[in-house]
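Here is the promised in-class demo. Please do not try to memorize the tokens; focus on the logic of going from shape to residues.
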């Protein structure tokens, strides 16, 4: 049995619009025009890193997270680690190797003027179920994640959690800060389901007023 979901990116800024990334410490990014940026997995960043004068861009692939559960282990209650296919592990802030192979980087920033609202909100939306070609279903809430980052200690800006099968709030990014976390996904493996490849999509959105 194969379980796969796609990690997609979306951005909502009710004025000027951009795309983006982040990290698990905060830095001053107050210089420049109003801007919103979110990176999920692999993204686009031109002319080196942010500290070297680089600029975020829009685009990049939709990354895949997957696991293959052996038939003899289906539904045995032993959680199965899922692997992401992202190839970008470094922070676009300074190039630090923040994530590891198999993890999905999620981060961003909201740069606003003094009078332009204090926070941006990160949400994720999933369908209720993943489905296979035969129409069999598997609840999306059987997939969860652990949040970390190389060299980090303490709370992550994007906390650990579980998909709810719908839209859910994940984090709040303060204005003029850079935030990022690395997500390691796992499948609970508590359901006895028919054989097949189960697919679904998780769409991450960063929005600001």
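The designed amino acids, position by position:
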């Amino acid at each position: 049995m194969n379980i796969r979901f796609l990690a997609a990116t979306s951005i909502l800024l009710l004025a000027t619009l951009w795309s983006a990334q982040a990290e698990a410490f905060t830095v001053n990014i107050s210089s420049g025009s109003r801007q919103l940026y979110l990176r999920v997995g692999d993204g686009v960043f031109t002319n080196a890193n942010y500290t070297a004068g680089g600029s975020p861009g829009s685009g990049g692939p939709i990354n895949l997270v997957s696991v293959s559960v052996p038939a003899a282990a289906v539904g045995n209650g032993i959680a199965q680690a899922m692997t992401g296919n992202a190839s970008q592990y470094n922070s676009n802030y300074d190039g630090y190797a923040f994530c590891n192979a198999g993890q999905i980087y999620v981060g961003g920033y909201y740069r606003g003027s003094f009078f332009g609202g204090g926070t941006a909100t990160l949400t994720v939306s999933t369908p209720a179920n993943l489905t296979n070609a035969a129409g069999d279903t598997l609840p999306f809430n059987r997939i969860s994640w652990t949040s970390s980052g190389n060299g980090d200690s303490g709370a992550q800006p994007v906390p650990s959690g579980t998909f709810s099968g719908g839209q859910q709030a994940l984090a709040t990014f303060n204005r003029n800060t850079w935030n990022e976390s690395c997500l390691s996904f796992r499948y609970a493996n508590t359901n006895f389901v028919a054989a097949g490849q189960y697919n679904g999509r998780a769409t991450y959105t960063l929005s600001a007023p």
